């Protein structure tokens, strides 16, 4: 496997991708936590570091945030786990974030609280500093009311969120789902109508112009040719890029590709699947098991085909190389089972300044609200994914260009800064 470089902004999580460009703001003060013994992403210079006890941090982050809330917020794609000590740790961590923010925020400042890890912060912070204007943004999907209400702490979470003056979500469907959570609450002290009036759909964005310009540069064009020569000389490429996470649907498109090879619809000598799958949350058993299954599936695809027709890159890839991969791919597969947004789909569109390429996109990714010209699929139907992959390869050039033109028009001029301006205004 050739060295494709180390990770960067386009290889990071959707939240980091969205927020990092804002770190350079002259009047921005960040309050954040570096993580469990490491700093996986470059941190902004103006950072107030929240220090968490390691035991509390693991119960808060690996435990309640990622083993309880994450699967719940994606409609139980895998079974949430509940441990008695996790919720007190989540409360303690949120209190510490709120205290640190209250200590550094200027009078009358606007504070943007991000994601499911910090849902109690808005109420705690508003009680500490009533002068602050608070925006809360949930980057994930919004769960159905019936699944959310299985959380023993559902009402406490809603009480925390409603401390915000604005409650931001990714999509119109997410805004409706969030309203249903408030309407379904059993808490007598919640002003439901006031809460619902604060909900706004503000989809997160990639920097369309910057990615598009970079994709057209001579350097990236040459790198795209080199990537194709290294990975798939003379072959058509299906590209998939995601964290190895049960919600991302990686097994679904691997199975679809395997069946297309098996039934002869795709020739393994003329086609290759490039799967960039970055392992994540290794402490959560479901993630480690999925990582093992993905590795095994790729090996079995190649063994059955008798040729290397599937390539797994199981580490973060440098941003320039990712744009080159987008440029080189004939078809991009995004088959999330449930996704708040999915910025990879938007990055692919932004990188296709040549006007070509096909995007196969899950109907259950938030990006589908904006990217209606993609080949939209139900990711729970392997036959639907198979048909979309074949259409992506075989569609006439004029049809591919028509779809890509519509996709690029939907994103033109948008960026993380336009997202922030709209959210904070």
UniProtKB/TrEMBL annotation:
Pfam families: Glyco_transf_20. InterPro entries: Glyco_trans_20. Transmembrane segments: none annotated. Belongs to the glycosyltransferase 20 family. This is Trehalose-6-phosphate synthase. The lineage of its organism: Bacteria, Bacillati, Actinomycetota, Actinomycetes, Micromonosporales.
């Amino acid at each position: 496997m050739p060295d494709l470089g180390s990770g960067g902004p386009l290889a990071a999580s959707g939240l980091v991708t969205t927020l990092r460009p804002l770190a350079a703001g002259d009047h921005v003060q960040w309050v954040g936590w570096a993580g469990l013994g490491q700093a996986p992403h470059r941190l902004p210079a103006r950072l107030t570091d929240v220090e968490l006890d390691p035991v509390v941090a693991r119960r808060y982050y690996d435990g309640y945030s990622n083993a309880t809330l994450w699967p719940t917020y994606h409609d139980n794609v895998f079974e949430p786990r509940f441990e008695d000590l996790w919720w007190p740790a989540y409360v303690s961590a949120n209190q510490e974030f709120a205290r640190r923010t209250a200590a550094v925020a200027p009078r009358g400042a606007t504070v943007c609280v991000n994601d499911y890890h910090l849902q109690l912060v808005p109420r705690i912070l508003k009680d500490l500093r009533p002068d602050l204007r608070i925006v809360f943004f949930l980057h994930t999907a919004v769960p159905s009311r019936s699944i959310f209400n299985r959380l023993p702490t559902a009402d406490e979470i809603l009480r925390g969120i409603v401390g915000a003056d604005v409650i931001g979500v990714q999509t119109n469907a997410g805004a409706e789902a969030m309203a249903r959570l408030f309407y379904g609450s059993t808490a007598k002290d919640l002003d439901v109508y006031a809460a619902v009036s604060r909900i706004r759909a503000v989809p997160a964005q990639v920097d369309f112009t910057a990615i598009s310009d970079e994709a057209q540069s001579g350097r990236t064009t040459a790198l795209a040719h080199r990537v194709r020569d290294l990975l798939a000389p003379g072959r058509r490429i299906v590209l998939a890029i995601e964290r190895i996470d049960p919600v991302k649907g990686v097994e679904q498109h691997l199975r679809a590709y395997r069946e297309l090879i098996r039934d002869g619809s795709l020739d393994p000598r003329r086609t290759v699947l490039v799967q960039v799958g970055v392992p994540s949350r290794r402490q959560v058993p479901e993630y480690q098991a999925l990582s093992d299954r993905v590795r095994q599936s790729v090996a079995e695809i190649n063994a059955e085909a008798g040729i290397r027709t599937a390539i797994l890159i199981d580490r973060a890839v440098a941003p320039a190389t990712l744009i080159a991969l987008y440029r080189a791919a004939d078809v991009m597969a995004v088959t999330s089972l449930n996704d708040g947004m999915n910025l990879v789909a938007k990055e692919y569109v932004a990188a296709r300044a040549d006007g070509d390429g096909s995007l196969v996109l899950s109907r259950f990714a938030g990006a589908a609200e904006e990217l209606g010209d993609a080949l939209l699929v139900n990711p729970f139907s392997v036959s639907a994914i198979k048909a979309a992959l074949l259409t992506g390869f075989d569609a006439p050039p004029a049809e591919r260009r028509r779809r890509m033109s519509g996709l690029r028009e939907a994103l033109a001029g948008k960026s993380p800064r336009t997202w922030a301006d709209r959210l904070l205004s």
